[in-house]
Every structure is written in C-alpha cells, then in structure tokens.
Specification:
Blueprint (H helix, E strand, L loop, with lengths): L6 H6 L4 E5 L40 E5 L5 H9 L2 E6 L6 H7 L4 H11 L13 E6 L11 E9 L2 E7 L5 E7 L2 E11 L4 H8 L3 H11 L14 E11 L4 E14 L2 E9 L5 E4 L41 E3 L6 E3 L4 E8 L5 E6 L4 E8 L1 E2 L8 E2 L4 E4 L11 E7 L2 E3 L14 H20 L4 E4 H7 L5
Antiparallel strand pairs: 1-2, 3-4, 4-5, 5-6, 6-7, 8-9, 8-23, 9-10, 10-11, 11-12, 13-21, 14-20, 15-16, 15-19, 16-17, 17-21, 18-20, 21-22
Helix pairs in contact: 3-4, 5-6
The protein binds zinc ion.
C-alpha cells in the first residue's frame, strides 16, 4: 500500500539513485545535511547523496537502484527504517568533529558524547575506526529525521552507544557479543605470493602478517617461494555465535612446503612460560639474521621483481634485491651496531650494520634513513632502520641488500648464520609432546574450518 506516498511524488523521485547495502539497512542522505524538498520542482536527474566513508570490508556489495524500481510497499518500508551512516574516523579527528561531518548539530553531538563518556573515553578513538551514526526515518521514505544514536565498537566484542531517549536527552549503554575460543586450520597452494594465496584461502590478514613475520628468519620471500609451493597454518581465534572471527589469537603452527623442502614452526611455551617458535626438531626458528629484512607481506606478485635483470647474487651485483613499494620499512636483519649511515655514491642512502658474529649487512637506495640510526648506535633485530627508495644508481624503488663476511660481500642465499636455542633433555621431551598434540589437532580440524577448543579437548588422544 502506498500510504501517503503519492504517485506524483514517486514520479518526481524517478531515477533518484539510492545506495543500499545488500541485505542491510538503507543508507542514503548521509552527506552533511542537504535539504531535500520532495514536493518541489522535482529534478528527475537528481542523484542520491552517497553515504560518507563507508567501509564495507568486502562483505557487502553496494548496489545502486532507483526508487522507480521500488514497489510502494518498499518505499513505505523505507519510511519506517532508521538511516545508518558508517563514518570512518580521520587521523586526529575528535568525535564531535566526526559527528559534525555526519550532519549532527553540535549541541546534540555534545549531549550524546556527554552520555557516552560514562562508558567510553572518546580520546581512545583511533583513525580508521568506524562509528555508526543513526538518524530517525524521515517521512516519505527518503531524507532522514533527527539524529537518534551514535555507536561504536570499543573492541571486537563490545559496542557502546548513546541513544536519544523519549525525554529528549541521550543515554549510554553497551552490548557485548558472546564469543568462544576456537582453533582454525587453513592450507592451500601458492599461486602468486604467500600473502595473496593465504588471503584467497580466507586466512585473516593479521594472521598472515604474523605468519610471514615468524617465517622471515627462514624464508626469503622474494626468491624462495615458487608457484605450486604450499602453506598450512593453524591459529587460535575468538568467534561469535555466527561463526565469524572477531579477534585472531596466536598462531599455533605455520608451515611451508617450498619445492619439497619443509619449513615448520610450532609455537611452544617452555616450562618458564616463555613462548617462541620452534621447528620440528625443537630448534628455535630465531636466527642471527633475518632472511627477509623487509615486510614479506609487501612482496606480492604485483610488486615482485620478476622481470628484474639482477634479482640474485652475482660477482657483478654482490647483493640481492627485494622488490617492495617505496616507503616500505627496512628492518635490521640482526642485532648489531651501525657502522655507517648516510649517502654512499651509487648506493644512495646507505646503512651498514656490524653484527657480533663476523657478519655485516648493508642496505642501499633508501628513500631515507630512520631517525636515530647513526654510526655507533646499537640496533635490534627487526628494528626499522630506513625506508625503501630509489636513491643512488637505481632503476626503481627496491631494497638492495648485502651480507658481508669480514669486508667481502657473500651470497646471502647460501650463508649459514648462527641459530638460536636448541631444546634438549626434558625440555625437548616436553616439546615433542606438545608437537604431537599440535599435529593431532591439525589432523582433527579439516582445512578451512575452525573448531571450539572444548570440542577438541573432548576428541583428544585415546587413552588406553
Ligand atoms: Zn641490487
């Protein structure tokens, strides 16, 4: 039934583009308030104002439809629905400013924030965070009514909101989502890069980043990964009742099969409570030097230097190159001290680190050297020492990386660097027990699924 939406109004709305979230609430009229007069002259070509900064996380598709496509009952339905706008916090932006940007009058914004402050400190707002601003439905199914609610997630399981009360003021409240700890298992073959293939398999991005970090001692993400290699990862996470991951936890296992050579990382907590990753033999995966001294996640096929003439080490080249976007942070491959930092001819902006084990490493063509990296300073493994650029004699942004033994460049792909802790005796026995448990868990959880920790405990190993 058309109710008070007349055919004339409907005609004047023809071609009014409305952006909706598939399966979600209508989102429109979300630009800082634009007066809309439905009974006015009726510009048939008027397009609906798009919502502010909607971040859809790839979960929903935006579809443009016209009101002319809608039945009368659908239009009436819209007239009953509140209008939600998802606004992303800009860098340094205060909640009042954000609300202003969403078209909320400052007096109302102040009221809402004063209520919210009892549950949430607005100074904790982070750039990129999403805030949902709700307006009451407007008559006739388009535009929007008065500002009615602001809500945001303070962490993956808690939402706080301030809602307009019947008396006119705002009142704050919160909801928490029930979550359960589960263990998830994914595996797949690598088509382009580990990052892209793990993403395609559905591994959460934070887990991929942590996995790449843990593997960076053993894997040269530029050269070691070939098409057809495979990966496997098992991690803990907190899942909501719909089975959606709300917070990833620790990686319990990460493995790579690189053309038949296997790399396996088991997370293990020793008897003193310290955790580290160990290979199947109980050797810490930490090594004196990282094999990939940049964020391996940035080495994707799009940036891979597949066509670079001098990827590898040669007598002419004396180093290896990592193709990553300009500005990518460069990490110290190992603990050491800065032997040189500054412009160095064809090397451009250059840093050389001396490590305690007879090795030195050098990093060239940086766009800039990180603050505090000066000759004589100590650096820690993984510390950011500069940023990828194309200074000196360079054809494009990349990291030129050298390993020196004494003062001679050596092939980083073939050196044996000192390794970390090797478990022995009772520690090794304890680790082997843990490893068996981890392997069993992986066998019990089918790939691309997750399972409650309690269910796994019940399945457990059979006791005689
Ligand atoms: Zn080079």
């Amino acid at each position: 039934m058309a109710g008070h939406v007349t055919a004339k109004v409907k005609r004047s709305l023809k071609a009014l583009a409305v952006v909706i979230l598939v399966g979600g609430a209508a989102l429109f009229a979300a630009r800082p308030f634009v007066p809309f007069t439905p009974f006015g002259g009726g510009d048939d070509r008027l397009s609906g104002p798009p919502p502010l900064y909607m971040d859809l996380e790839g979960e929903a598709k935006v579809t443009a439809i016209t009101l002319a496509d809608l039945s009368d009952s659908e239009i009436e339905d819209r007239a009953r629905r509140p209008v939600e706008t998802i606004v992303q916090v800009r860098s340094g932006e205060k909640l009042t400013e954000l609300l202003g940007r969403a078209g909320v009058a400052s007096a109302e914004a102040t009221q809402a924030i004063d209520a919210l402050i009892t549950l949430f400190d607005p100074r904790q707002l982070k750039a990129g965070q999403k805030v949902t601003v709700t307006h009451a439905p407007a008559p006739h199914g388009f535009g929007r009514g008065e500002f009615s609610k602001v809500s945001l997630a303070t962490d993956p399981i808690r939402d706080v909101f301030a809602r307009r009360t019947d008396k006119g003021g705002f009142k704050a409240d919160q909801t928490t989502r029930p979550v359960s700890k589960q263990v998830a298992h994914y595996s797949g073959s690598i088509k382009s890069s580990l990052y892209e293939s793990a993403m395609a398999a559905g591994v959460p991005v934070q887990v991929i980043i942590n996995m790449i970090k843990a593997l960076s001692y053993d894997v040269d993400f530029q050269r070691d990964i070939q098409q057809g290699d495979s990966f496997e990862v098992m991690f803990e996470g907190w899942y909501d009742t719909k089975g959606k991951l709300v917070r990833p936890g620790d990686i319990l296992f990460a493995g790579l099969d690189l053309s038949g050579s296997e790399i396996q990382l088991y997370r293990y907590e020793d008897s003193l409570g310290a955790t580290d990753y160990f290979n199947a033999k109980g050797e810490s995966v930490k090594k004196a030097l990282l094999k990939t001294p940049v964020d391996g996640a940035k080495i994707t096929s799009g940036f891979g230097m597949r066509n670079h003439p001098i990827l590898g080490y040669s007598k002419m080249h004396k180093g290896i190159d990592f193709g990553v976007p300009p500005g990518t942070p460069i990490q110290a491959a190992g603990d050491g001290s800065v032997e040189m930092a500054g412009p160095n001819g064809a090397y451009g902006n250059y840093v050389r680190l001396r490590h305690g084990n007879g090795f030195a490493t050098a990093y060239a063509h940086m766009s800039r050297i990180a603050q505090g990296v000066h000759t004589g300073r100590r650096v820690m493994q993984g510390q950011i020492i500069g940023f990828v650029g194309s200074t000196g004699r360079s054809t494009g942004p990349h990291l030129h990386y050298e390993v020196l033994q004494g003062n001679n460049q050596v092939n980083p792909m073939s050196i044996k660097v000192p390794t970390g802790v090797k478990l022995a005796g009772k520690d090794l026995d304890r680790f082997q027990g843990h490893k068996r448990q981890t392997d069993l868990m992986m066998a019990q959880i089918p790939s691309a699924t997750h399972m409650a920790v309690s269910a796994l405990a019940k399945m457990g190993p059979k006791k005689n």
